[in-house]
Records
---
Amino acid sequence: MTEPPSPDTATPRRTVDVLGVHFDALTIPEAVHRLVTLASGTGSHLVLTPNVDHVLRARRDPAFAALCASGSLVIADGQPIVWAARLLGRPLPERVAGSDVMPRSVVAAARAGLRYYFLGGNPGDAARAAAILAAEAGRDGLCGVDVPPFGFEHDAEYLAGLIGRIRAARPQIVYVGLGSPKQEFVMQRLQAATGVPVFMAVGVTFSFVAGTVRRAPRLLRRVGLEWLWRLLCEPRRLWRRYAQNLAVFPWLVLRERLRRPRAR
């Protein structure tokens, strides 16, 4: 475990290294509090939600590894990450899924009087999710919604317009749901161009909140099998990725665990 200073907070930041990616050792409520604190403070911060696929990508892609290392809040989105940390003797308090943190943080941000911007998701889902969360919070902090077309990240004119819209909206938080790794690299570019206090990667969460995509039942989430639910829902898109992850990740964790006694 490492304890670098925690930006914009009075308490030290405690992280856990899992195969080179450093995860914040926080519970869901603590992560929500940290996110809202960052959004209320100074500087500009990335909130990242790595799972097994992200960890393996970081091992083969130096640019993605550097991006993960730049996160001010890095939460363990996958239960296998929590299991791996425990096996390596560096336990995390719990799984902190982005799909749990995002809606809670939106409600907390709205109640704190912060503004937020939704970027990405399927057409209509972000606006629908915003309305649902505003009703829960009792107030609406939404200051913009943008559902960009496919390939927009290569369109300089579109990006310039998007940057202008975000600057004009003046959000404290931009939630970005574009799928990984696109969303993370887009966040990095927008951070440099706008200086918004917080950008958070949220994947498919807009659709979960809107109810257009069904999340895994609570029991499967509790026992760490949400990944299996997603595989059953989208086998053609996900089977190859999950098969590779299942073949590689456990072996890397075991190898790391076996190396540690020799290192001592």
---
Amino acid sequence: MSLGTRYNGQGDQTPGGSSAVLDVADRIRQAIETVIEGKPEVVRMALTVLLAEGHLLIEDIPGVGKTMLAKALGRAVDCSVQRVQFTPDLLPADITGVSVYHQERHEFEFNPGPVFANIVLGDEINRASPKTQSALLECMEEMQVSVDGETRPLERPFMVVATQNPADMEGTYPLPEAQRDRFMARISVGYPTAQAELDMIDTHSARSPLDDLAPVATAADVRTMVDHVRTVHVAPGVRRYAVDLVTATRTSSALRLGASPRATLHLVRAARAYAALEGRSYVVPDDIQALAVPVLAHRLLPSAEAQMGRRSPESVIAGIVSRLPIPTPR
């Protein structure tokens, strides 16, 4: 299916500004792929979430490169990066910061936590308690942190890249629904191909490829790209298609918790970024379909019957996408 030019709201080609966006995005992609080999779709999804001003959840078994992907994204962009290793004894103040009283000055001084960075790498986020996980709720949604009655804004771009092991592994706490809903997308890295694993033996044995990864873009470049993504056109029919898709998850008998209105906003924002990375100034239904599973699946809870039938949220969404009528251009 190719509905590209028919859904261009203005009937023209991609504006000249897109070429600069694609150039910077391609440099970031190539830099990350020097570290993460053989996973172009995973890298593309990470870039999509970055340009859509969202947050990314990377869920997979240990040892497949979740943290490496997050680190590579942080190093490819010349901006402030902070890493938080989530452990059971981590406290909320260890993330947001704390006010310390100085006796000689007789005043409190705020020591900012690692959340005050452009890219925050949360490693194994589901090993911390739900109370500590909730410390990220405000900053992920509102780009601000409230401590001791004072609200402090966060600098753009701001992105949380969190990794987690599957919930059935030992020593993990399931992420609360409110926390999962704030992540724009969830992806899995998966096992590498045999050739990629052979190449990895050569490139990773002597030293880490991260040591040779230099920044290829700045925070200002990312802000410019984000501003361009916001101008990508979404036709009324495509908007309605996104709403119908999300609404279908709320009425499906296979789900006891459907997607929220925030999920609709995230789906459209991600589709804008996805289209921009394709060099288009407009969103097509293909973009919505490609993003439906990574953007929606982690927010859904299957019904008891679906669990007994071993139906996953991913399969339910795939079924909804296959049944939902595609909007026709007017």
